């Protein structure tokens, strides 16, 4: 017996969080009975499980876990669907079955994003506060060292969110722009852009270069590759780095 949201995620229909919304919306049934209570369990070997009227048991039997690493270019949406018809990260990869992105990168942000049909991994990585996400940041103008230390300690954003401490390493600036390597352990919407806005230096370029131990080495913008078994395993066991990076 497994929770329905886990089975729906394993079938590649939606992430576990999205599956919970399907259940609450009355879109899921077991043996003909509509289920709206989260935590309800079912046995895919015995029970007929339907999502939006379609049986998912065969998908559960056939589904093989897929893990793709994409170096997302600027101007691509981190979503599996878009009513406006914009280009999606799922358009850039070739893989059997339906994939969804793990977390999000802004439309104008570049860099690494994982696509998978594994709802458990999606939930684990998206909610983790121990898996570092590393970004290269180019700012308009050059912030003072005092301002950077303020960001590193954590700041309250305009929307009221208080950021956790971040690791910020100063890279070589140009005459007009600052460059930084920022490591976060949380994923608030547009957090880095809002952080630097709060000190009066907007972000003009943003790129994610690492997720946990997984780097963008050898992966050009728009290119993708499969994660290795060791990389997949690392997403469940990464601990906070202590070398100052």
What labels describe this entry?
about 240 residues, alpha+beta, disordered C terminus, nine-stranded mixed β-sheet, 15 strands
Provide the fold topology:
Layout: E1 2-3, H1 4-10, H2 16-24, E2 28-30, E3 33-35, E4 41-42, E5 49-51, E6 54-55, H3 57-62, E7 67-72, E8 100-101, E9 110-116, H4 119-127, E10 133-140, H5 145-153, E11 167-170, E12 177-184, H6 191-197, E13 203-211, E14 214-215, E15 224-226, H7 229-234
Parallel strand pairs: 9-13
Antiparallel strand pairs: 1-4, 2-3, 2-5, 5-6, 7-9, 7-15, 8-9, 10-12, 10-13, 11-12, 13-14
Brief digest:
Helices cover 22% and strands 26% of the residues. With 245 residues, it is an alpha+beta fold.
Uncertain stretches: 237-245
- Total E-strand runs: 15
C-alpha-based Rg, rounded: 20 Å
Strand content: 25-35%
User: What profile does the largest beta sheet have?
Assistant: 9 strands, mixed
* Mean pLDDT value: 90
Oligomer description: single chain
Overall outline: elongated
The H-and-E topology, N to C, reads as: EHHEEEEEHEEEHEHEEHEEEH
What is the count of helical runs? 7
* First-residue to last-residue Cα separation: 43 Å
Structural class: alpha+beta
Task: Give an account of the 3D structure.
It is a single chain. Helix 1 (4-10) packs across helix 2 (16-24). This protein has helices at residues 4-10, 16-24, 57-62, 119-127, 145-153, 191-197, 229-234; strands spanning 2-3, 28-30, 33-35, 41-42, 49-51, 54-55, 67-72, 100-101, 110-116, 133-140, 167-170, 177-184, 203-211, 214-215, 224-226. The radius of gyration is 20 Å and the shape is elongated. The protein contains seven helices and 15 strands. Strands 7, 8, 9, 10, 11, 12, 13, 14 and 15 form a nine-stranded mixed beta sheet that branches. A four-stranded antiparallel beta sheet has the order 3-2-5-6. It is α+β, with helices and mostly antiparallel strands and 245 residues long. The chain starts with a strand and ends in an 11-residue tail after the last helix. Residues 237-245 have low confidence and may be disordered.
